[in-house]
Amino acid sequence: MPTVSSPLLSIPEKEELYQQITDYSHETTIIHSNQKVLYINQSGADFFKASKAAVVGANVVDVFTEDYKELITERIRKGMEDRTIGELMDTTVKRFDGTRADVELYCYPVQYGNTTAIQSILHDVTAKKKTERDLLQLKNEVSTPIVPIIDGLAVLPLVGSVDGDRSMRLLDIIPQKIQGENLHCLIIDVSGIYNIDNVVAEFLYKIDQIMRLLGIQLIFTGIRPELALKAVDVRVDFSQLKTMGTVKQALKLYLMAN
Fold first, then answer.
1. Of 119, 126, 89, 87, which is closest to residue 104 (Cα–Cα)?
2. Domain assignment of residue 175, given as a range
3. Is residue 3 a part of any domain in this protein?
4. N or C: which end of the chain has fewer CB within 10 A?
5. C-alpha to C-alpha distance for 7 and 205, rounded to whole angstroms
6. How much is the average pLDDT of 109-134?
7. Same domain, yes or no, for 49 and 67?
8. Of the residues 124, 150, 174, which one is the last residue of a structural domain?
9. Is 29 within 8 Å of 120 (Cβ atoms)?
10. pLDDT greater than 60 at residue 5
């Protein structure tokens, strides 16, 4: 049976066929070479809230937020020069209307017509990330109980690890949780904190400064010697903080003074 040879496609025909295939994808698909956008599908244009014409020709790195641009530039360089596949990563992009979105990014080298290029697939995970952040915030609020002892006095036991993210959330959550409590003094017990590092030392100093501005005295208990040493390393002056060995000692001090 004779074989029927199919005619070779021209470069423009190859590009048009490629575009027809990717246009059916619901994921944002961008083809770029040397950072210049050669093609974006309709789903991608809709996601970025722009027309295809506005995106094609633009620098693909410009859609990423500043904290990711250097990493993205290096991924593109390796993809173009070494033809390596960029592993799945989480990143943030800026859309043309000024809003931001969280995405999962996957890149791999392709031949677009006669051009050596990279195809990037972006999956919108904004809603998923928001849900994760909301759940984490709720978890942190539940795990940060402010326990009233008597009128004007409460105890806050901190348990677990305090990294940079949790430190920032605590600095936001604690002032909110004491509103309406009519507190004069808050005892923060840090004996249950696992990590003893610079982040914890800086957190204690910052929350003390915030509470001073709110007119609330802080008494820290359970500060271990290694934490005091870390405070010296980052030049945090613990001499400004009111500290006691245990919650029991702090309660006794407060009751004697009042």
1. 89
2. 130-257
3. no
4. N
5. 74
6. 89
7. yes
8. 124
9. yes
10. no
